[in-house]
Amino acid sequence: SDDATSLQRVQHKIPMLSLSKVLEDAGLIKWWGGIQGKLPNKPNFTCEPKFDGSALSITYRDGVLVQAVTRGDGQKGQDVTANVLTIRNVPLRLQAPYPRPLEVRGEVVMLKSELAEYNRNAPKNGVNSIKNPRNGASGAISHKDSRKAATKPMTFYAYGYGVVEGSEHYSDGTQEYCMTDFRKECQRMGIPTFPIFETTRTLDGVRKVYDRLVGERETSDVEWDGMVIKANHPKMRAKLGNSRTSPRWAVAYKFPPEMVRSTIKGITLQVGSSGRLGIVAEIEPVDILGVTVRRATLHNPDFMSEKNLGIGSRVVVTRGGDVIPKIVRSIGDPAEPYDDSHFDNCPS
């Protein structure tokens, strides 16, 4: 098999756009208020988890799985059909009747329990352990060898669709599904969907589902990092349309980042890919959402002074957007003042 970097690139017939994101209630209110005036009174919205995995498009023709493509840059993705054929819960053939063709879109994830078992057996199986579900799913679905991909614990959940033609199951005579109808059809055809899925017509209803997902995040066997809110009806989605990069009829409401405590053990300078000088804290290793964090950005001397940071400082650390490690604040005074005079000189 070819390396993942040389997998065949495939053009999406309908772009797989990314979702715009809001990080707090004020952002949700702004998004909600911005679309309400363009829609009929009390339109229906769906709420479901935002999975922390790898987005995927699966195409069925005459009920048979014929192609699977990663999201890629949204316009083109990698053909990973051979790897998707190894995912246990992905049906190779649909229950009739079915659209011809049907493009299902969803997320490849790794269940926490299956990942833990994989890692327990990794030493005796002579393979490396997988650090976290997100990186594991992304790496497994684009693996260069489908036989090795088959050994990875991948699971797929459908949450939307792309190209749909020739179905007798449209809503209101349109050529599109309501999201609620799409889920029902997936379940009838044998396509896996995630059990948490709610509909609401109010902002308070959205908040209730969000609070539920925040509360169930740690105990869920699937990693999620927020909630996706979508306009349910296809006419609503058509009316709101898309921007160049994201649909206006959907938004990802991200969870607050997990925060943990650590200690700054050292401070170093580094030159980033853009050529800019950065200050990095070497911290006591901590686990944040399954990732071991040993370094976090300190931005610049002004940031360090404002936050009262130095070697020996007890600090609160998070991962911005659950990705980039950063220090939020210090806890008490630094154990020793930090001499920042050498910031004036670039490292060689």
Description:
The chain is of the alpha+beta class and 348 residues long. It has nine helices and 16 strands. The N terminus is likely disordered. It is globular.
What is the topology?
Blueprint: E1 9-11, E2 21-22, H1 25-36, E3 45-51, E4 54-61, E5 64-70, E6 76-78, H2 81-84, E7 102-109, H3 112-125, H4 133-141, H5 146-149, E8 155-164, H6 179-189, E9 198-200, H7 203-216, E10 224-231, H8 234-240, E11 250-254, E12 259-271, E13 277-288, E14 291-299, H9 301-307, E15 314-320, E16 324-331
Parallel strand pairs: 2-11
Antiparallel strand pairs: 1-6, 3-9, 3-10, 4-5, 4-7, 7-8, 10-11, 12-13, 12-15, 13-14, 15-16
Secondary structure category? alpha+beta
User: Which sequence of strands runs across the widest sheet?
Assistant: 2-11-10-3-9
Q: Classify the beta-strand content into a percent band.
A: 25-35%
* Low-pLDDT segments: 1-5, 167-174
Known CATH architecture of the largest domain: 2-Layer Sandwich
**N- and C-termini, Cα separation:** 42 Å
Shape, per Cα inertia axes: globular
Determine the CATH superfamily of the largest domain. DNA ligase/mRNA capping enzyme
Give the overall pLDDT as a whole number: 87
Enter the CATH topology name of the largest domain.
D-amino Acid Aminotransferase, Chain A, domain 1
**Top CATH class of the largest domain:** Alpha Beta
Helix content: 10-25%
What summary fits the major beta sheet? 5 strands, mixed
Task: Give me the strand/helix succession.
Answer: EEHEEEEHEHHHEHEHEHEEEEHEE
| Strand elements, count | 16
Number of domains: 2
Distinct helical segment count = 9
Radius of gyration: 23 Å
